Amino acid sequence: MASVHESLYFNPMMTNGVVHANIFGIKDWVTPYKIAVLALLHEMSTTKPMALLDRRRLNKLILPLQQGPDLTLEQFLKIVEECCLRMVNAVKHRLFLMADGELQDMEHFFTILPNAFSDSEAFKTSVVVCYRQMLLAYNKLSFSQVYKLYKSLQQYCHRVQPELSALPTEDMELTSNEDPSAEHIDKDELDTASLHQSELRSEGTSQGPLSQKQAEYFLARQAYLLKNDENKAMSPAKLQDELNNILKFNPDFAEAHYLSYLNSIRVQDIYISTHSLLHYFDRLILSGGEGKSNGDEGYGRSLRYAVLNLATLHCRFGHYQQADLALQEAIRIAQEANDHVCLQHCLSWLYTLEQMKGSDSVVLTEDSVKIAAHFCLPYLASLGIQSLVQQGAKQGMPANKLLDALRGTDIMHWKQSLSELIEISLAQTTSIWRMYGKSTMARQQAQLLLNMNSLEPVNFSVQQNNTEAFAVALCHLAELHAEQGLYAVVSDIMKHLKQQFPPHTQHAKLWMLCDLKIQFEKAMNDGKYHLAEPHVTAISALNSTEGLYRKAQLLKALNQTTEASQILQQLQQQCEKSKDIEMTIRVMLASAELHWDSSGFATALPLLLQALALSRQHNLQSLTSETLLHLAFTQLMLGIPEQALVLVQDVLESVLAHGSLIDKGRALLLAARCQMALAGAAAQEHRLTALEQAVHTLDEAAVYFSQLDCKERMRDIHYLQARLHHTLGNISQRNKCSMLFRLLDQELPSSGMTVVSHL
């Protein structure tokens, strides 16, 4: 089931994907690269007859060019050429006209720029305003500064030096040299705070100091990509190099430390992530970068959220004791400051921590929902309700109550466009329907999530599709397709999951476990136990409970009943302690099958009846159907075929509607065996009709087993068909089925289990 605790991850740096960087010591200057972008903007404004598509591409290109790192002239012209080939020549002609001419040519260019922008609509965040600010900066330059800028432009255009020439900070200040109040800068600062010299390498990283806007743009883009599509973000190593480069020129840039923290979490590096997180809050507190909350108030608020973030970090790495201590400290500080919002975040993480430790947190969660609703915090209230739904599903609450609770919160989510919570709700609904055995409804909900358009603002051409909810939905679809024998589709889904969630990412464990379980079931169905054994070890590494259950299944198939029984007893104790009802029922069914192997059909009945009571109590329809099939088989072996056939017919409709191919085939095979047993005791005039009906049922079962390529089951089918055709006098059909049985019997290893002793 999709978990909700990841949505409580507090990120003080990001608001709708925007990084708020207000403390950066490097100013924006007029550079030769900015002149090149100005030339492009001028040519776009003066060139009227331009194709609509070309103009649209150039308009989308302008802002990244202005906010990104400086490019070489070759790189700049190549990017423009990809958008509009015609514009490249005009921009190149304009630049070389200034570089090959005289200083007055550059002066003339800046003189005509205001005329080009006079008709443009200007607002605070528009590109035009950005360049008008640059024009103001240019107009404040002294003659010597303009001359140095002109020389830098010549070097930029003719590539006289490998790097752009840098103008000293004292020459390029936005105040004139004659201003006596101008701030004096040390020689060390002159070396670092000089004209931007960054030149993009082939992989897209920069080498020199970035301006404030460039750093903000870089951090905003990478933070947004990490949140919404990690594959499009820089690799962890390259991103860390870029962040180290930014921090080298400005160690007090708090937001760069926070992005370093997010980047370290990607590779599960607890040392660097903790180090970066503490540095972020240290810089934030020292700089007073909390907006209006400066002084003691800002210090206290930063300290509270610093401790809270430290607690979430320990939760993420499974350090529950350290997380609990950090949460208690955050609660204490928040209570002293009477910060209800921080207290509510702490309470949300407190019940999340209790869930992660396996404790009962229903009371804490209910209190959290009530308090969040009282303080008008709908996001946290909805998370609490979703957590209660998740706990209620595990405790066997009726599906209608759970879905009603989710529907009530969904109305609020849609009204307030809380797309992240909508995704979690759909993923939870998918999991609930699947847990209750309604595979058709589960597929519908999963498809609804995957085809839903995100309500989040789409920045950098990225949709939000790498969340835990998407991973859960895709894993459910993969398992549902595998149950129907559509392994080619499963392969495509897994390929997409591996691309969208690489192995080092947070949610990769979901598809890894899903893939291993599918491969294990396929190997077991094919009777290739030597291929299933490595999967058991891999599953155990990801989930110890699932690994033990699969190991018991494998040992049982290999007739190592003693070892399998010991593992099942150990697993049952663990499940009773953790209150894992689903696994408890599965362990009971597997234990009953072990009793079958020793012909202890009567001793299996108490286990099966207990499993049936649990599955019905918790509304687990799929497990209820499976338990009834086990009971029917036990009754058949005890000589009560009439009661066995009644049980099979009661669950057959549900199994055919929502069950997997293996379940459908097993149910029909059991029904055919019951019909054969009843035919043996029937009167002579009804016997042939009953046997023909059993043959027809076996033919239907064979269709499902053949789709799975389940050779062991097909061998059992051919054996029973041969016996029935022999009784009916169909010699040719008997010989055909006998030959198919002989071929499969020679191909498959002897497992010790015959059609008589297993379901």
Automatic annotation (TrEMBL):
This is Anaphase-promoting complex subunit 5. Component of the anaphase promoting complex/cyclosome (APC/C), a cell cycle-regulated E3 ubiquitin ligase that controls progression through mitosis and the G1 phase of the cell cycle. The APC/C complex acts by mediating ubiquitination and subsequent degradation of target proteins: it mainly mediates the formation of 'Lys-11'-linked polyubiquitin chains and, to a lower extent, the formation of 'Lys-48'- and 'Lys-63'-linked polyubiquitin chains. The APC/C complex catalyzes assembly of branched 'Lys-11'-/'Lys-48'-linked branched ubiquitin chains on target proteins. The keyword Glycoprotein does not apply. One of its GO terms (cellular component) is spindle. Pathway: Protein modification; protein ubiquitination. GO terms for biological process: anaphase-promoting complex-dependent catabolic process; cell division; positive regulation of mitotic metaphase/anaphase transition; protein K11-linked ubiquitination. Belongs to the APC5 family. Keywords: Cell cycle, Cell division, Cytoplasm, Cytoskeleton, Mitosis, Nucleus, Phosphoprotein, Repeat, TPR repeat, Ubl conjugation pathway. Residues 257-356, 595-651 form the Anaphase-promoting complex subunit domain. It comes from the Eukaryota. It is found in: Cytoplasm, Cytoskeleton, Spindle; Nucleus. Residues 30-158 form the Anaphase-promoting complex subunit 5 N-terminal domain. SUPFAM superfamilies: TPR-like.
